[in-house]
Amino acid sequence: MGSQYMYSALPTTQPASDNMDRIASTSTAAPDGYPLHYSDTVDGHKSNGDHDDTDLELANSATALRQDFDHDLQTRTYRVYKARWFGLVQLVLLNAIVSWDWLTFAAVSDTSAKFFRVKSTGINWLSTAFLFAFALSAPATIWVLNKYGPKASITIASVLILIGNWIRYAGAAVDDGYFYVVLTGQLLIGLAQPFVLAAPTRYSDMWFSDAGRVGAVAVTSLANPLGGAIGQIVGPSFASKPSDVPNMVLYVSIISSAATIPSLFLPAKPPSPPSARAEAPKLDLHAALRQLPKNGSFYLMLAPFAVYVGCFNATSSLITQIFHPYGISEDDAGLAGGILIIAGLVASAIISPIVDRTKKHLWAVKILVPIIAIAYTVLVFMPLTRDIVGPYIVCGALGAASFSLLPVALDLLTIVTFPVSPEVSSVVAWTGGQLLGAIFIVVMDQLKGGWDGEPAKTMLTSLIFQAGMAWLVVPCALLLGVWRFKKIIVGSDSHVVGTPPP
């Protein structure tokens, strides 16, 4: 009868602080110096009745995983290895390249449409199909990362990127281009994306200590939009007229091919774990997939993450079409997309180390999520100014808040879902974001026009839709850590604090 708890023994090395960031949901005390890692099966409220057999099985399974791990943990020393930087750099390269590949044509949508003799909707489908492909390979990504680790995932992504790029070039190199051949190559690259985009949380957990994990996730995850920024800025210079499109695809294919080569030389794993969390046993994949749907805190973090990734993907893909009807050139719109991303990278480089040191995950989430919603609201009015200065400022603010949130949210997801292995929550979250991005692109494309006195292809209604979606998930972030959504959160690998539920 009553609640079943699973313990995880992690050494306490510093005083506990910041109840906002470490939420406890149990009145059962752990042994001195060891935090509890699992609350109740109902997000922190004690059950009034018996748990079913499945819940007891999961609880007993997680407890058993730790029994051989706990007894000598306090005397264990950990170290990190220089080889971790090699894999980190390769993840940065591949995440940047796969995003550049995604936005190759979106950055010059009008020029590409003329070359392939299709409407702008056809060019949008090069981005949309890429995002849908993510969902197709997501289950395989979870399995590969869980069973074989980051090296296998990176290798698979490299092969798909290599093949996909040269198929795209084959389709673009012929007279007037074979659009559907290009689309096939784009789909292959889309299948590659989850293998590198979802790998950073698993890679950082395997190779980095407590003090560097959020930073490692930030560097590798944010390399993805960095590639998009490169595509937005460089694309118009590579293809200023329709006849330049084949050469643009060739240049990108050569760069992408070069970026895949180092994958062959990555070490599979470190000789020893870098932290207690890395060494702590995780649930097997089957048990993890059964436990994750029961975690209310996971849904509260998943909702804003997926919606904001979807909004960002839609904005990045459609940015030329958002501003071009109001007389803003492809070059200026592309630069706005670049500012969106570069400002985000700078802001994240400042925020991520601060969160790494202070462990203020929840404070960061609860501040950044409303700021992002406000930025999407202001973006609605920017095309109406018919001037580029306002869009530059708003895109910079939107990018800064969005990119600062990204690594913090990913690390928080791994914390609230422990002992589920990091790649499971990461892949699920990214898949949600990519699917919503694809859906938002389709919806926003269909919402063009319809305003008297505005250009025929105005995306004003589309931007209002996007702002509404951004506000819809704000309450989810604000509910994290309160009421029935209290959940054990480890502020670092060394301590946890909080108050029991009523």
TrEMBL record:
Subcellular localization: Membrane
Keyword Transmembrane helix attached: yes
UniProt GO molecular function: transmembrane transporter activity
Keyword hit for Secreted: no
Topology of the protein relative to the lipid bilayer: Multi-pass membrane protein
An annotated GO cellular component: membrane
Record protein name field: Uncharacterized protein
